[in-house]
Amino acid sequence: MKTIHLYLLLCIALLTACDDDIFDHSKNSISTGVVSLTLTEGGTPMADIEVVLRNINTNSQYTATSDTQGQVAFTVSPGIYEATAQGSHAEEGVAYTYNGTSGQLTVQNAATTTLTIEMKGVRTSQVIIKELYNGGCMADDGVTKFQYDKCIILYNNSAQKASLSNLCFAQASPSNAQSENYNYDAQGRLSYEAEGFTPLWHGLWYFPSILEIEPYTQVVVNVHGAIDNTLTMSQSVNYAHPEYYCMYDPESGYANTNYYPTPASVIPASHYLEAVELGLGNAWPLSVSSPALVMFQTHGVSPADYALNTDNQWYDGNRVSQIWTSVKVPNEWIVDAVEVFAAGYKDSSKKRLTADVDAGYVWLTNYMGHSLYRNVDKQATEALPENEGKLVYGYAMGVDGSTDPSGIDAEASIRQGAHIIYQDTNNSTADFHERAQCSLR
Fold it and tell me: What is the pLDDT of residues 264-274, one digit of tens each?
């Protein structure tokens, strides 16, 4: 009896779900065929991929999700169809987007059309450097320059929660782009260009535990001066916030109190980053004019163990001395990077990051309170349905014509509840602009 009951329910459901054109009135019977698709990438089945099957003539659409074997099936009326498949997932700060199409499929009555769709994957950074404030500001007297208030703002540029282990910050040498660079060969190429790694100089900072970032949200990391700097410098930034992180590890050797005053009491000790110092000096020398900042993860080894292993060390410009000690970071470990050139040195600045790490650079005028802010991906941001009525246009925070081409005021839109997707082309020239002031002010 149970079997008959289930059979009747199945028949009723099938009749209810079918379009009118499935039913053959002349023969008083249901006319259907089956489309059976298998989704793979490099021969590996792809699960949890959404597939949309569209009837080219009637524009009717059917949606299903692939199972653990990468398979999905549709029962539809005979006709000409096309299938599109799309899915994504994030792992260790890297977002993967997959797309595939079937071309035209002919579905015949009482027949099964089978096809394997090979998915094409694109790898992008799930977590990006949204903003870099390193140039300092002027004191209230209009004469004194203040540089002990740097920060990096990270952002989860996806709809999935990010979970990153062994996340690190470091910089390429020389610290200033306009300084003499001893890493160029006689042909005018960086000596490590074809080596698959980037040498990062002086030391590195890392999160001692897994960093989790919710979708479309940011994390503030103070580099120098994790206090309320506005109490003495009104044009600076207040970092006294319990959700902020800071670089603070005096035991590492980075103990200069001008750069590392005791963090504001509201910042929990669990938010202190730790450091490995390889060079000399008592402060991590992130340039106030033109750094080449790199964010990366170590894999299968802790950041400290990797950096202290002499097999992973490299001497800048082949100058064998502690002061020039760098760590070789495989380029595939790099999550994001931004190369900065100083506005006053347009003729003498040279690239330190190879094209596969950052193909461009962004100009900065320092000591003016300016920051480097990532441009909005206009098309992707406007396509998010939840952003309807929340996006604010007329952005006017760019400096000297260097502005966000999208015209979207990202910070104002976020305050309206919008989700921003920022541009990430692996080219700082296209991805960043100089902002009149840090967004934290």
Answer: 999 999 999 99
